[in-house]
Amino acid sequence: MRRPQARATAANTRGYAGDEVAGYLRDRYHRLRVTLALDLLTEHLPAAATVLDLGAGGGEVCALLAGRGLRPVACDAVPAALHSGFPAVRLDVGEVLPFRDRAVAGIFAGEIIEHVYDPALLLGECHRVLRPGGVLVVTTPNLAPAQDRLRFLLGRAPRQVDPFHEYLRLHIRPFTYPLLATGMRSVGLVPGPPRSNQVVWRTRFGEARSTWLARVLPTLGGSLVVAAVRPS
């Protein structure tokens, strides 16, 4: 019988077999999320620093990292991701990472930690392979955005834990900012304050989105974007 992480990886590989990342980046919501993450990486890292892109997909984010003057390494369980034109490593982010201790200056884990059976292992592995002073930037859907706080008060489940949603059903480890920060601290990383892309309010008539509100009150936003540093 396969272990839970192997089953989770297989389910995600099937569920995201198409051109998912490129599709996401055509949506301003996800472009903002990635831009915030790139801003954090470039704030913390020198030019030409090596950055692991965990869950690299077709290499779209690697191209953006390279455009910021960084040196990305595409990391993914899907073989197609290894042909992105960037240095690439095939791996499962839910297992021990195939890198030596203190090997890299930066790691980008975009929309991946919520898919992992054992996020403590992933965070611990990120700490291990980061150099002292290196930075991990995580983006993940927020379990407690503005609308879902009201939904929960009304006895309805938060959107991120819908086991029957087309793709949210693959999100097996949802996070709030305090929970994510606690996990980072538990492995020796020092998290910074959260950032977020947009506060989203969904109705049957459409969506209302506010970038300004997400900037002012990031824990109400749809995505959490958090940088965590390995202390020197």
Please describe what this structure looks like:
This protein is an alpha/beta fold and 232 residues long. It has a single domain, classed as Vaccinia Virus protein VP39 (Rossmann fold), CATH 3.40.50. It is built from eight helices and nine strands. The chain has helices at 4-15, 20-25, 28-44, 60-67, 119-129, 146-153, 177-186, 211-216; strands at residues 50-54, 71-76, 88-90, 104-110, 130-141, 190-191, 199-203, 206-210, 223-229. The strands form two sheets. Strands 3-2-1-4-5-9-6 form a seven-stranded mixed beta sheet, sandwiched between helices. Strands 7-8 form a two-stranded antiparallel sheet. α4 (60-67) links the parallel β1 and β2. It starts with a helix and ends with a strand. The relative contact order is 0.15. The mean pLDDT is 91.
